[in-house]
Amino acid sequence: MMNELHLTPAEQKLFLSLPEKLREGWKVREETQKFEDTKKHLRMRVSFLKIRDPKLHVFQEEIKKAKNEKKIAKLVSEFDLKDVHQADLAELFFALGPKPLFRIIEAILRQAKTDEEVESVAALSLVRNALLRSFIRNYV
Q1: Where are the alpha helices (DSSP H) in 48-114?
Q2: 12 and 43: one domain?
Q3: pLDDT tens digit string along 82-96?
Q4: Gap between the Cα atoms of 112 and 2, Å rounded
């Protein structure tokens, strides 16, 4: 089981506001990496997205139509990703980049009431951390 959370200082404050029972056993590492994505890069990555799951094809079209990352984050947070194949998830998160994950993590932390929600934050923060490292190395 993962027990690390990669959180920004603002996210750490939200995490610390959770009940002690939910915070128990977690190790918080500060996420300090920053990356400024561009609409051009985001659109390009989404256009190259190769996914197998038919329901993700519809989702991909919705993402292409989204006006900004706030709308993309909303789409992702409302979409059920539980049964999506791991390879498709990797493609999806790479295409979206790290920025929507900041909003999603914050939203989950604001309303987290279960261990499963904190585990989701851990998984998403790990993905975001890896994306940030990759994007910084390859775009900067």
Answers
A1: 54-65, 69-78, 86-96, 99-111
A2: no
A3: 778 888 888 888 888
A4: 17
